[in-house]
Amino acid sequence: MPTGRHRWWWAVAVGILLLGRTALAAEYRPLPPAPQKGLTNDWLIYNPAQNRLTLYLPDYHAPAHAYYQWVSLKSGQPVPITFTARQNLSLFLDNRLVFTAPESGVFSLDLARLIPAGSPAARHLLCIWHPDESPTYTSFVNAVPQPAIQKGRAANALLPQERVPGPQNVYIVFLLLIGLGYGSIRATYRPGFTRIYQLSNFWSKSSTDQDFLIKPTITWLNLVLVLVFSLSFALLLVAIHTSVQNVPIIRRIFNVPESALVVRVLLYTGLIAAFVLLKYLYLQVMGYIFDVSGLVMVQYREFIRTILLMGLVLPFVMLLYLALNSSAPSMVLWVSNGVVTLLLLVTVLRIGRTLNQRTPLLNLHLFSYLCATEVLPFIVLLKIIVFPY
């Protein structure tokens, strides 16, 4: 049986072991997380029942007009952000109005320049609010610091935004599907594919060119090509022309989260394909009103051929986006806007030329018909896709 002396030494040994384990635990204790710099993906909304801000869960809460976020700021340490804003969107910092969007577009701001000079590091409450609609909170992302950004102005209206981390894989998969689609169609419908995509006949008056305008329009070949064209155009809109989702009528009818890239691409594909196919009904109605029904079929066939041929350029613009968006986003957007404008403009000019060969457009009646069916839709599409940038 251990004596009192032995028990004392035993207690000392146990105490040393416990102190050693405590020291080891203290040595490997994890450090506290570093303070968050810039914006996060978590946004808050005001809960009036509890009188506090709660985490916003898109699948649980209804969309709100105001979203909040705590941001760590210090005077002299830039915290630049970029975002897409509809007209009249406002930003508040600690309940103080610091920015109001004069028009729809892409804006850049340095949050550190919005606090008083010499302010120490502290947390500030950022609020984004729109009086009529839910703000596009997912477009608020951190940006590379840029010098001389003026408060309240669009620093670079040509800056496209990468709203979801790492979407390039999604774009690459869709590009592969587009390539496989064109390749499969060419292998299966070689004569028809060659007739549509033969550049030498585009501005010519050959018999081959005229034969196309009397062949059936709604064929399996044309329908599949329209779907591939629609997918190419939709991919370009989702990747570069991100503000299309902010068009009020699209947002109200098809309110798809901006993080759902695949769903948005498929949605835009369906909208574009529906626009192309339903234009025939629109032309029939306008042809009946203007009493030029005999020109409707020729006009629609020319419309189909022109957009299909011009649509071959769209996948190359997407390749340019994947290669240069991180280093030269302004150039990519200029090229994209130029291609979209050229696609729409050439379509109008080509249709006008074809109709003029049938009946001279010097007649004011026919010219008004062309403006109603081609020029007006051309201006509307430019307003939606190109002018916001």
Structure report:
The chain is of the alpha+beta class and 389 residues long. The protein has 2 domains: 44-142, no CATH class; 168-385, no CATH class. The chain is built from 11 helices and 9 strands. Helix 2 packs across helix 3 (190-196). The longest helix has 30 residues, at 261-290. It is elongated and about 110 Å long.
The order of strands across the largest sheet is: 3-8-5-6
Q: How confident overall, as mean pLDDT?
A: 78
Number of domains: 2
Main beta-sheet annotation: 4 strands, antiparallel
Give a short summary of the structure.
The protein is 49% helix and 12% strand.
Structural topology:
Blueprint: H1 4-27, E1 44-47, E2 52-55, E3 66-73, E4 80-85, E5 90-93, E6 96-100, E7 105-110, E8 122-129, E9 141-142, H2 168-188, H3 190-196, H4 207-212, H5 220-239, H6 248-253, H7 261-290, H8 296-310, H9 314-324, H10 329-358, H11 364-385
Antiparallel strand pairs: 1-2, 3-8, 4-7, 4-9, 5-6, 5-8
Helix pairs in contact: 2-3, 2-5, 2-9, 5-7, 5-9, 7-8, 7-11, 8-10, 9-10, 10-11
Features:
389 residues, alpha+beta, 2 domains, 4-stranded antiparallel β-sheet, 3-stranded antiparallel β-sheet, 11 helices
